[in-house]
Amino acid sequence: MKLFEETVESKTLFRGKIVTLRQDVARLENGALASREVVEHPGGVCILALEEDGTTYTVKQFRYPFGKVVEELPAGKLDGPEDHRLAGLRELSEEIGATPGEFIYLGCLLLSPGFCTERLHMYLARDLHFGPVHPDEDEFLEICCTDLDTLYERVMAGELEDAKTVACILKAREYLKREAGERT
Amino acid sequence: MKLFEETVESKTLFRGKIVTLRQDVARLENGALASREVVEHPGGVCILALEEDGTTYTVKQFRYPFGKVVEELPAGKLDGPEDHRLAGLRELSEEIGATPGEFIYLGCLLLSPGFCTERLHMYLARDLHFGPVHPDEDEFLEICCTDLDTLYERVMAGELEDAKTVACILKAREYLKREAGERT
């Protein structure tokens, strides 16, 4: 098996502010043709901002597709081909008003690789310096402070469901445990 | 703040095999109107299948939106309002030919709550009994066996990027550590 699909046709059906929808035809490795729906998304970045005493920050906002408030780590979309590190620093400043002395890359996530091009980059921010928040116009957020151990317990209890939030909290915690192990 | 958005208009732009695209108008809490692009997706399930000696299973497949092979835990879409537990058992049987004696729910993930209704359910499968695999027609997979510790190291090294795979491996590992702690 070569695990490859070749694009035979590609048609853009919709260009929105957030997503672009394409319907392609792909030739599979057995020669058969298959329809491929592709949602193009610019990708994004999320940040676990951690203070020395263990305090972290989450934001609650109404998530229209689910019709409910979802609690997530601070995050935002990339503006086109923007550098994700700069985008992360901007979001952190906009949403919780913090500038970090340390900004550690924790890897990326492919959120729905079956149909969507969205790629999300995760960061751990430390040595935080606070200034005013600069929320986007028409962005309504409630900022919450919680310590990392509590966030971890809430992930394990299923109280936090946002995928980037779950993955970033668990991965950051492993990163911090390894770092502490190396220091001792 | 009440963190609520009210639907004022809703228009379905596309109904595909995988996704449905809507463009809605929502009234925000300050009274302003905003466009909301919504990708409807039936949701899915992913499974970490674990043998007593630590062996786990992943699948490699070509993911058309990224134009590359992605390694993921066995997973699949729900067929409409299907029970996610039954869907998980079916996918496990189709993709790796296993029937589990134990099938433990690990919670769900909202993959892209800003624009997409996809909700993914995670399971840990143990006490595995193997029969023939039943892959979907036109589904090309390569099945890989790895032990859980190696999967964890590959998550930490950024070699596994699929969001459900990262979240499910890290959460299952925490679940197993707690279970082992309770036993001793």
Regarding quaternary structure, what we see is homodimer
Any guess at the CATH architecture of the largest domain in chain A? Alpha-Beta Complex
CATH superfamily of the largest domain in chain A: Nucleoside Triphosphate Pyrophosphohydrolase
> What is the number of beta strands of chain A?
10
Estimate the global geometry of chain A from the Cα principal axes: globular
| SS field, number of helical segments of chain A | 3
**Number of folding domains of chain A?**
2
Mean pLDDT of chain A: 95
Largest sheet of chain A: 4 strands, mixed
Q: What CATH first level of the largest domain in chain A would be assigned?
A: Alpha Beta
Instruction: Look up the CATH topology of the largest domain in chain A.
Output: Nucleoside Triphosphate Pyrophosphohydrolase
Topology of chain A as a string of helices (H) and strands (E): EEEEEEEHEEEHH
Kindly report the greatest chain-chain contact and the residue count on each side.
Answer: A-B, 68 and 67 residues
Could you characterize what this model shows?
The structure is a homodimer of 184-residue chains. Chain A has 2 domains: 6-40, no CATH class; 44-183, Nucleoside Triphosphate Pyrophosphohydrolase (Alpha-Beta Complex), CATH 3.90.79.10. Helices cover 23% and strands 43% of the residues of chain A. Chain A contains 3 helices and 10 strands, in the order E-E-E-E-E-E-E-H-E-E-E-H-H. Chain A has helices spanning 84-96, 148-156, 163-183; strands at residues 6-15, 20-27, 33-40, 44-49, 55-63, 68-72, 75-77, 98-110, 119-130, 142-147. In chain A, the strands form 3 sheets. In chain A, strands 7-4-9-8 form a 4-stranded mixed sheet, sandwiched between helices. Chain A has a 3-stranded antiparallel sheet with strand order 1-2-3, with no helix packed on it. The radius of gyration of chain A is 19 Å and the shape is globular. The mean pLDDT of chain A is 95. Chains A and B meet through strand 2, strand 3, strand 5, strand 6 and strand 8 of A and strand 2, strand 3, strand 5, strand 6 and strand 8 of B.
